[in-house]
Amino acid sequence: MQELEKIAVLGGGSWATALVKILSENKADVRWWLRNPDDVHHLQQYGHNPRYLSGVRFDLNFVHPSSNLEETLKEADWVILAVPAAFVQEALAGLPADGFQGKTLVSAVKGMIPKENLLITDFLEQHFGVPADRQCVIAGPCHAEEVALEKQSYLTIGSHDLERAEKFCDLLRNRYVKANPLDDIDGVEYCAVIKNIIALACGIAHGLNYGDNFQAVMVSNSLEEIEHFLDALMPLHRDLKGSAYLGDLLVTAYSQFSRNRTFGNMIGRGYTVKSAQVEMNMVAEGYYAVKSIYELNQKYKVEMPITTAVYNILYEQVSPGVEIDILKEKFR
Ligand SMILES: NC(=O)c1ccc[n+]([C@@H]2O[C@H](COP(=O)([O-])OP(=O)(O)OC[C@H]3O[C@@H](n4cnc5c(N)ncnc54)[C@H](O)[C@@H]3O)[C@@H](O)[C@H]2O)c1
Ligand SMILES: O=P(O)(O)OC[C@H](O)CO
Questions:
Q1: ipTM (interface pTM)
Q2: pLDDT tens digit string along 297-310?
Q3: 227, exposed or middle or buried, with CB in 10 Å at 0-12, 13-18, 19+?
Q4: Ligand 2 neighbour 251 (Cβ under 6 A)
Q5: Does the CB atom of residue 260 touch ligand 2 within 6 A?
Q6: Is 299 noted as a catalytic residue in this protein?
Q7: What is the pLDDT of residue 299?
Q8: Measured between alpha carbons, how far is residue 14 from residues 222, 282, 326 in Å?
Q9: Which residue in the list 103, 167, 195, 291 is annotated as catalytic?
Q10: Is the alpha carbon torsion for 98, 89, 256, 307 positive or negative?
């Protein structure tokens, strides 16, 4: 009998839960790390995550929840990181520098390590010595909530090693998930970070009562911002119309499930950052991402009006109305 692939999934939120569903239904041996021991206990007893996507049931023959990170990683060939970027360092704090040796790391995170302003793949390489060709990222427009409902979804697996990416695609493919490999790993990773900022801006505008007409112009203008930033950091002929770029931007900017748009909408309606965060129970990566991209861009000096506006609103206490007025005059 063929041995099952051993996959460790790190994180207890919606995306980790959705990925565990996909992988375990494909009969992989999934070791699932959640930081909260009560959630682990609940999963072991009732077979579902009490906090996120709680309607998804797991077959505990294939899913092994634990709050012990080293135990979870022990025999895994693949490790999927699905913790919000701001908490990645804290989650991995107890691990030795060679804790991922011999494993393939797959980042499902769409954010950057704050302060260091590093992509997750760069962080894993610099802090844990995981070579670039042993890493993949999960990109594409895919909300965990729709995976839970088994709605048709598309994922792109970015990697410098396309054979490895193709293997991982195979672990994901099912009746409602299509997956394709792509070699522009840094491009899709940065694009996933910036689209969260754009969705936050769309939410802010919506909260200020701007309509679909304005949002469409915001999203079209944002493509230029993304393209210029990517070209400044890593020039490459890439097709931004692809679903891993434009598709991901659109789903986050328009979907009712979007954390970033929801967060922005609250800010536009006058919530403080703190109160919006408390109300959400979920993490809007764009809040942290805008600081990283803004700071990083001090070196590259790309014109990024939407990023600047969101940064000024969230970190410089400029009124959302003032910043959106500035954008209104700039957009074409
Ligand atoms: N949800 C999606 O549809 C989706 C899709 C693709 C990628 N992602 C990415 O997956 C990553 C995980 O996001 P998510 O959507 O699963 O999260 P979520 O918003 O559903 O849940 C929040 C997660 O953050 C954790 N958390 C909150 N406060 C914390 C703290 N102080 N310390 C440590 N952990 C804390 C919670 O335990 C929970 O696991 C993000 O980078 C996100 O961009 C999410
Ligand atoms: O749309 P958000 O803000 O919930 O982010 C989730 C994913 O990035 C969608 O692909």
A1: 0.97
A2: 999 999 999 999 99
A3: middle
A4: yes
A5: yes
A6: no
A7: 97
A8: 27, 9, 35
A9: 195
A10: negative
Say whether pLDDT at 327 is over 90. Answer: yes
Which residue numbers belong to the known binding site?
14-15, 35, 52, 87, 110, 140, 144, 195, 248, 258-260, 283, 285
Instruction: Evaluate if residue 1 carries a pLDDT over 90.
Output: no
Report the first-to-last Cα separation within the chain, whole angstroms.
Answer: 61
* CA separation for the pair 93, 73 (Å, rounded): 14
Domain that holds residue 80: 6-183
Whether residue 5 has its Cβ less than 6 Å from ligand 1: no
Whole-prediction pTM value? Answer: 0.98
Domain endpoint, select from 183, 210, 242: 183
Reported as a single tens digit per residue, the pLDDT across 148-189 is 999 999 999 999 999 999 999 999 999 999 999 999 999 999
Does residue 3 have a pLDDT over 90?
no
Q: Enumerate the known binding-site residues for substrate.
A: 110, 259-260
244 in the same domain as 145 = no
- The set of residues, in sequence order, having a beta carbon less than 8 Å from that of 242 and lying 6+ positions away, is 156, 182
Count: domains in the chain: 2
Which residues make Cβ contacts (< 8 Å) with residue 31, sequence separation at least 6? Answer: 6, 7, 8, 9, 64, 66, 71, 72, 73, 75, 76
CATH of the domain at 273: 1.10.1040.10
CA-252 nearest atom, ligand 2: 1
Mutate to test the pocket of ligand 1, among 22, 38, 87, 147 (most ligand atoms within 8 A of CB): 87
CA 111–ligand 2 middle distance (angstroms): 11
Dist CA 103 CA 118 (whole Å):
21
Ligand number, closest to the Cα atom of 280 = 1
Could you tell me if 152 and 215 lie in one domain?
no
Q: Is 156 in the pocket of ligand 2 (CB under 6 A)?
A: no
Q: Verify that 300 and 285 share a domain, yes or no.
A: yes
- If asked whether residues 179 and 205 sit together in one domain, one would say no
